[in-house]
Amino acid sequence: MTQRKPMTRIQRKNTEAILEAALVMFSQYGFRGSTLDQIAKAAGLSKPNLLYYFKSKEAIFTEVLEGLLDNWLDPLREMKEDGDAIEEILAYMKRKLQMSRDFPRESRLFANEIIQGAPRMMHAIEGELKELVDEKVKIIRKWSADGRIAEIDPYHLIFSIWSLTQHYADFDVQVRAILREDTDEIFDEAESYLTTLFTRMLTP
């Protein structure tokens, strides 16, 4: 197998610029609504220069999504079986909420891909994501069986955490229009509310 040569500093810089520009375009206009010309302009490159790094819009989109999925999985990977059960679940919720605050574009792009039927990442959802969720579900079931948390459906608990935290990124405009508060206030209040909600739900 031929090994890919390490990228030069300029190549790394241009690749990062392309992926950042693509994230902006894809999260705002979706895959179909974004064009290579838009991405190239946002990256400060010509279209031929962009195509030197990525052969197609599909290739750029796939690279962006792969990076998103890895970031998406990290907060759940950190849930440890030997920790305090309720605190571990609350910590996961807080990490997901933090991601919604810090990476709203990524969250919206991920959500849009799922809404479209996940045509470019179903293999990852059915593979790596499902395997990780199944692994954590076993831990949550054990906590419940041991009386460390209330009896609860682990899958729907995880789905609830996803929906209740990602709402603040995916529906950011609606949240801001209603609350008329700055980012820190919104997320501080959300964390306090969700901590109370899940603590009451999970306490035996």
From TrEMBL:
UniProt cross-references to InterPro entries, sorted A to Z: Homeodomain-like_sf (IPR009057), HTH-type_TetR-like_transc_reg (IPR050109), HTH_TetR (IPR001647), Tet_transcr_reg_TetR-rel_C_sf (IPR036271), Tscrpt_reg_YcdC_C (IPR013573)
Keyword DNA-binding among UniProt keywords: yes
Limits of the HTH tetR-type domain: 12-72
Entry annotated with the keyword RNA-binding: no
Short name of any one Pfam family annotated for the protein: TetR_N
One GO BP: negative regulation of DNA-templated transcription
Annotation: DNA-binding region: 35-54
Protein keywords: DNA-binding
GO molecular function: DNA binding
Protein name per the record: TetR family transcriptional regulator
Higher taxonomy: Bacteria, Pseudomonadati, Pseudomonadota, Alphaproteobacteria, Rhodobacterales
